[in-house]
């Protein structure tokens, strides 16, 4: 079906698609790349810059504070020590993508490239779903697929590879070449270079294809080719990561490992935050509650209405529907094994690749509503989706506001021109932004860390030190008229630096206390 036929005959439908396709290209203006250098985003920028400075030969983090902290005990970004190297837990492949773009386009080029990949993902999915505007509208406007894909480049790139490989497979005919089937599996496996959990999705897809279609001679060739390509791709990834990091699943797995293997009944807080909400964040179904209805319907549908395990109905199930079923089963598997890192803002990166399957299952739900209740059920479902559209809008607004806030913090760094920046919480290394490589920065969480760090590094080598203290630790005892009164963190700083340093500037912000200590001449 072409773009001009079938469901695309209405000019309003065409206009709807054009607007949806334009949204990814608008996001670089809504969430400006230069304002996104904080927290994980800053860590990915640091990784990319390090790869470039290492001549693409190593992911060893190039930190200005390395001479002050050779062991990496006070690393201002998330890092793991492997041998003599400090390695980022973020995907090395993402660092290479950043390293390619940063020299000639800066951080802007990275986000524009990701926006284009998301647009191509929309095109692939629209073709697979016969240009159904409801499908794309639900995915783009009522789920975090667009904003998470853009805001977290590793998520956007991983989803492009997975969707691109799936598109190549699902659009293949029995007469297609072995190379096409193998390539589709290999491309899907390539998504794991950016998000390791994406391995689960092709695995469940292969499982559903095998139990329902393997007896079909024509389908068997496709399944075998896809499986071979996937296994080659995953084998290459696991082998390289084992050689480089000593673990086949790489540094991110090692970083998250402590919470992944907790028993399920000990992970209720993780599940609640991941799926519904915690005090600061909205989870997967908190963002799109309509998908909770979809999940319940899927369980009923798969068990009682069209069970792919029953040989008698296997020929009635299309590969596209099997792709949807496998995506929801992969979702359930990932939820059970979710690490603490799975809890993120407004829907989950960790469960991102299941979103196309949820949107597909939503259409199956609409098709199976009885005539008697069709109108009222659709009104209820679309009303719930409108809430998610509002959340998508609010999410973008919040992220944009936070990005502008970090830019103001960057300005403070430029005004103070310190010789060292000390942050109490790693997130606040964002004060350096794109200037991260100009000034050493260390993460000193507790009073004991301050004492230990400055006992190994003489304060006298610094003219001015800028401190960023989180107010969360002192909120109850904070004296608003004098935030330095009975402030144990500040007291430990003055003791460690000695009488030669005095406070020359401070600013009491909503969530942080910033102050500069300058050495007397």
Automatic annotation (TrEMBL):
It comes from the Bacteria. This is Glycosyltransferase RgtA/B/C/D-like domain-containing protein. The chain crosses the membrane at residues 96-129, 150-172, 192-211, 223-245, 284-302, 322-338, 350-367, 379-396. Keywords: Membrane, Transmembrane, Transmembrane helix. NCBIfam families: LA3751_2_3_fam (NF047440). InterPro entries: LA3751_2-like.
